[in-house]
Write a structure and sequence with these properties.
With 338 residues, this protein is α+β, with helices and mostly antiparallel strands. It has two domains: 215 residues, C8orf32 fold (Roll); 90 residues, Immunoglobulin-like, CATH 2.60.40. The chain has ten helices and 18 strands. Strands 9, 11, 13, 14, 17 and 18 form a six-stranded mixed β-sheet that branches. Strands 5-4-3-8 form a four-stranded antiparallel β-sheet. Strand 13 and strand 14 form a beta hairpin. Helix 1 crosses helix 3, helix 3 packs antiparallel against helix 6 and helix 4 runs antiparallel to helix 5. It is globular and about 70 Å long. The N terminus is likely disordered.
């Protein structure tokens, strides 16, 4: 049984902001307009493309912004390649040598398709970001690891399935994910929907690690690093957590068991810009969907606390929402009192 849910299972210090706050005085509109100006440019000459995107811009952060925005808004994800890669990685997960051979051969196919059709998977996005940044004399690396979504790395041992970037600006490293910034798939129709999400650009490490876990944990970019098992069993966050800058603090696990009439307090580190009236909890039990308002308080530590009492038995998917946008999901099983 889940007890002591008021305990802060993970303490986060400082004001919660995407690391874009380091560049809050930089106006990105010019960089974004240059990226838009060259919409549809091909990839046959990467040095020329890098030159066109960065030459008019005075600072490295603006230059990288133009590169990131261009890649995120011009490259499309390839769902067939994604599924092919996912299936093979799952099959070869415990055969390191065979998995490495597959990754090397598949990477060549990915890059060929990227250059020819401007369609790719995460490896291609990360590669293109790194190459264009390097051509602009910006230090950028590809980071490989575990990406966590509704369909991937929920519990279990985990499978490395994703790539993103780290970029060095003003002698400091930042994290970004152009794949997840680019859009999403409507799976039944195998249709990619371009939908740029700025939340994954220079993301806050404490939030980024909730959905991205690098093979080399140095790239978590935090002094206190969660274990892989903690990452795999944590609550599931969605893209809107990045838009609203809401970092789940407690409970630290996705699945929990409580007894009837027991309360759970969901704790977040966040900004002060979220309207309390926009916050709700969606409870799903089978075909039944209910939206409820939790008791909301701000603690002395600056944490946002959402308290809800579970008065009925059942097995619930619990979605914390802001303006009806899903932020995070928990699974709560409510049992009888002993």
């Amino acid at each position: 049984m889940m007890r002591g849910l008021w305990i802060y299972l993970l303490m986060l210090s400082g004001t919660v902001q995407a690391q874009q706050v380091d560049f809050e005085k930089v106006d990105f509109r010019r960089a974004d307009s240059i990226a838009a100006l060259y919409k549809g440019e091909n990839l046959k000459n990467l040095p020329f493309l890098a030159h066109k995107l960065t030459k008019p811009l005075p600072s490295k952060i603006e230059q990288f912004r133009a590169i990131y925005t261009w890649v995120s808004t011009n490259i499309r994800s390839d769902y067939d390649y994604y599924n092919q890669n996912k299936s093979k990685r799952q099959k070869l997960n415990h055969d390191k040598q065979a998995l490495e051979a597959w990754n090397n051969s598949f990477r060549l196919k990915v890059f060929k398709k990227l250059l020819k059709e401007q369609k790719t998977v995460c490896t291609g996005y990360a590669y293109l970001i790194r190459e264009l940044a390097s051509l602009a004399d910006i230090n950028c690396k590809i980071i490989d690891g575990y990406g966590r979504t509704v369909a991937n790395n929920i519990g279990g041992e985990g499978i490395p399935n994703h790539s993103w970037n780290a970029v060095q600006l003003n002698n400091k490293w930042y994290l970004c994910d152009a794949t997840w910034s680019s859009g999403y798939f409507i799976v039944p129709d195998n249709q990619f929907i371009p939908d740029y999400n700025d939340g994954y650009f220079l993301a806050e490490p404490a939030l980024f690690v909730k959905s991205h876990y690098p093979l080399d944990t140095a790239w978590i970019l935090m002094d206190s690093k969660p274990k892989l098992s903690e990452f795999l069993n944590a609550p599931l966050i969605y893209k809107y957590a990045f838009n609203y800058q809401m970092i789940p603090v407690a409970p630290s696990v996705m699945n929990m068991q409580i007894t009837k009439n027991e309360s759970v307090t969901f704790i977040f580190k966040t900004t002060d810009s979220i309207e309390v009236n926009d916050i709700s909890i969606e409870l799903i039990e089978g075909a039944n969907v209910t939206n409820v308002k939790p008791d909301i308080t701000h603690s002395k530590e600056g944490l946002l606390e959402l308290k809800y009492k579970f008065e009925r038995l059942g097995h619930y998917d619990v979605h914390i929402q802001v303006a009806e946008k899903k932020i995070v999901t928990y699974v709560v099983k409510v049992k009888k009192n002993k």
